[in-house]
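Researcher: Go.
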Amino acid sequence: MICFDEGRLLAYLDGQLSPRESREVGAHLAACPRCRDVLAGLAAAREEVGRLLSPYHSAALNLPVPRPPAWPRAAYAGAPKTGKGVVSWTENKKNPPATPKKPPKSSSK
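Model: Structure:
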């Protein structure tokens, strides 16, 4: 008789096997006391872990859902204005405003 590994027995315990595989493992468990003991140990370990984690699990369910920070929305909202200001500033650097020329001094004496 070829026994199943613990991974297959755990998948059987979780109900993750196909119906055909589940029937095969069930038939094997009916005839193999060693695999039944391994399966019982896996089930007991699962129950113990569930018992130990249940206070943390229920406490986590009562925590408020965190809201995403507001700064990305504000940054995206201000981005077009910032971009327009940068373009305007660089255009002014390329083409500075004309400075008025001083009128020539008249030499009337």
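Model: The chain is about 70% helix and 0% strand.
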